[in-house]
Amino acid sequence: MSMGNMPRPKPDSPRRVRNGIRLRRKEGLENLGWPARDWATRLPINDDPESLRLALEYGKSGQAVNFEVESGRITSKVQCIAPKPHEVLIEFPGLNDTSWKRVLEQAAAGAIYSAKLLSGEFPEIVSEPFEAAGHPLIPSNEEVRTSCNCGDHSPQSPCRHVVLVSIILMERLEETPELALLLRGRSGNLFRDELQEARMLTTRGVSQAHTNPDVVQLSSPVTSIESRLNDFWRPGASLQDFRNGSLPDHIPHALLRRLGASPLEGRFPITGLLASIYDTVADEARRITETAEEDESNATEHPDD
Question: 175-190: per-residue pLDDT in tens?
Answer without folding.
Answer: 999 999 999 999 999 9
